[in-house]
Structures are given as structure tokens and as C-alpha cells.
């Protein structure tokens, strides 16, 4: 699955938050959106998953835009939000069933996948529990299970590493690797740069709603070699520079 974001301008009111963003995610690639609080990562994701409509520019999944076929577009995406969103009146079993219906999945194939994932995340005995009984991390795992049982060809994961325990983070990274091997593309946003550096194929740096740099780790190191040797060091130096130039503009 190829996701192409081309000259995306968008936001919440008439003033755009995103300004002509262009980047892509290729087949089987794990790409991370990196940016400070308020840079526009979640807004970008909200446009890609079809929750927001661009002011201008295009978003395509293998050439398909949302307006071409809303259902087909949305069925190609599975989304794991930063804050788990579960239906309070539905049990874990009913969440899985709802996903199976929404994505038109084969019952037995999907339940086989679900059982394997529920076991991995130690939720297999909690199928009749309601979200109110789950911890935040457990809710996040339910969302991951629901996303990973689908046949979606693009996985969008907003900040996967903060609410999960270290074992679950490792399991999630392995699951992402398996999906990548099947050709699924993965877009995530994260502030956990050490983990991102180890696992992501490419990085899209977002500053103030614009793509400030896009590249692989070797490309980033080559471009910014004077700033450091790791994604964390390079990104901290870049973010400080950007912050200084913003306050200089404001001071003018
Ligand atoms: P974080 O790392 O804190 O999650 P982010 O990069 O995901 O940040 P966004 O949530 O995309 O940032 O926010 C980008 C800009 O859009 C910010 O200026 C924010 O104030 C604004 N914004 C976000 N949500 C809304 C909303 N619902 N209505 C109006 N403006 C919003």
C-alpha cells in the first residue's frame, strides 16, 4: 500500500494548521512522524484517516482518494489512537465482533487472529469485560487487537509507546514487523525517539504544520552530522534552533 500525501493544507478553522505537507509511505515501510507538541502530527493523521477534510491538496491510498469511495478508502486503514476510544457499553468480545463487521472480515479467520493476539496481550480471559474494568494500557491493547485483526493495508498508530508496558511495546514492534513483511504500510507518530530510531525505516519531521525534513536515519545523519549522532541528539538540536528562530521572529 502506498500512501501519498501531496501538498496537504488543512486544519480546524479557516487558518490552516497544516501547510502544504508532502510525504509518502511505501509498501511495507514503517514511517514515523516526529514533531513537537502542537506541530500538527495528530492533525495530519486525522486528515489521512478521513476525520478531517483537506482545504487543499490530496491524500491517496494506492491512487484512491476518500471521495472516490469512502467505504473502500476507510477499510484500507486501521487506526490506533493515542487515547483509546472504546464503547463503554460493549464488552471486549463485542469490540472484536464490531471490528469484524466494520471491516467485512471472515468470522473464523478474524477470531483465530484475535485469539492469538488476545493471548499475546494477556486478555484472553477478559472477553466479557467492559472497558470500565480495563486499565489504560489494557484499553490500548484492545485497540491494537482490533486494528491488527483487519486486512487493512495501512496501519496508522498515534504514539504507540507511552501507555504500554515494555513487554507490550516489544510485542507490538514484532507485530508491526510481521505486518510489514505482508506489505502493510505503517505510519506512526511518536515522541519516543530512541525506539523510533531503532525500528523506523524513515522519518518525517514536522515543524509548525510543515515537513521540515524527510529521510532515512543514514540520510538524517548525513544531512545533520554536525548536530549529533542519534535521532534524539539531532532532533533536540533542530528543535532548539527552530524554537530560537520562532522567538526571534516574534521579537522583531
Ligand atoms: P502533540 O505532540 O501534543 O500530540 P501534535 O503534533 O499532534 O501535538 P496537533 O494535535 O496536530 O499537534 O495540533 C496542531 C495544532 O492544531 C495546534 O496548534 C493545536 O492547538 C491545534 N488543534 C489541535 N486540535 C484542535 C481542535 N480540535 N480545534 C482547534 N485547534 C486544534
TrEMBL record:
InterPro entries: AAA+_ATPase, ABC_transporter-like_ATP-bd, ABC_transporter-like_CS, ABC_Transporter_VariousFunc, P-loop_NTPase
Listed Pfam families: ABC_tran
Superkingdom per UniProt: Bacteria
The UniProt record lists the keyword DNA repair: no
Gene Ontology molecular function, alphabetical: ATP binding; ATP hydrolysis activity
Domain ABC transporter intervals: 3-233
Gene3D superfamilies on file: P-loop containing nucleotide triphosphate hydrolases
Keywords per UniProt: ATP-binding, Nucleotide-binding, Transport
Name assigned to this protein: ABC transporter ATP-binding protein
Species the sequence originates in: Fructilactobacillus cliffordii
Lineage, opening ranks: Bacteria, Bacillati, Bacillota, Bacilli, Lactobacillales
